[in-house]
Design a protein that fits this description.
Rossmann fold; about 240 residues; 4-stranded antiparallel sheet; 10 strands; alpha/beta; about 40% helix
């Protein structure tokens, strides 16, 4: 069943057109990766889906509702939650306070103790750091906190923008494992990720953006063997 549909999306920054007729479809229970080089339009796409940018034309449908003009906070209320690039945690608040901020809506707030326990199990380091100011965490710990805070909102769909950027391979592996765990707990995931190999490894399907348009799409295992993807994005001949 289609959970999110993006139809003929055009987005401009001033007079410059960034996205041209972008079309995506994400089904309930999937992990779908959005791949492409720097400047291809990946972050613009997910910001528009999340309501942080206004499309010039086209439509975003979530749970059979046109949300193209819905403000970002209303999309969160509907279950569409984004963890942005750069984490954007609250650095002066403690880890626990950051997590509590993720459950400010009525339904998650009613389940806050249960959700906190779940996040501490998913990311044990956060339990050890719960009284620590979030700004003093390592980069990997901050990324874990950002993802956990997003999951505290009980999202139907979680958008992750470059979750492994700047992290060591070991910490990145923990992040990808957490994404897979969240998906197994019935959270649909849209993943923007610069590590194409790892993204395809955990995804069901993927879209490749080039110069603001969808150049390729298909099952992740098929794209892993596509000559263009292997040459341009995986560095293989």
């Amino acid at each position: 069943m289609s959970l999110l549909t993006v139809s003929d999306l055009d987005v401009h920054y001033g007079a410059v057109q960034i996205l041209r007729k972008v079309c995506l479809e994400i089904h309930q229970g999937e992990i779908v990766s959005l791949l492409g080089s720097n400047g291809a339009g990946k972050t613009t796409t997910v910001k528009t889906i999340a309501g942080l940018l206004r499309p010039s034309s086209g439509k975003v449908t979530f749970r059979d509702e046109d949300i193209s003009r819905l403000p970002a906070h209303r999309r969160v209320e509907n279950g569409l939650v984004m963890v942005p690039e750069g984490r954007k945690i609250f650095p002066t608040l403690t880890v626990l306070e950051n997590l509590e901020m993720g459950s400010f809506l009525k339904k998650p707030k009613a389940r806050r103790p249960e959700l906190l326990d779940r996040m501490m199990q998913m990311f044990p380091i956060l339990s050890k750091r719960k009284s620590q100011a979030a700004g003093t965490l390592s980069g990997g710990e901050q990324q874990m906190l950002a993802i956990a805070r997003g999951l505290m909102s009980l999202p139907t769909m979680l958008i992750l923008d470059e979750p492994s950027l700047g992290l060591s391979p070991l910490v990145a592996s923990e992040i990808f494992a957490a994404i897979r765990d969240a998906n197994q707990a019935q959270v649909t995931v849209l993943l923007v990720e610069q590590n194409v190999h790892r993204a395809l490894d955990i995804s069901h399907r993927a879209y490749v953006l080039e110069e603001g348009t969808v150049a390729l799409s298909g099952r992740a295992d098929h794209l892993s063997n596509d000559d263009h993807v292997r040459r341009v994005y995986l560095g293989l001949g």
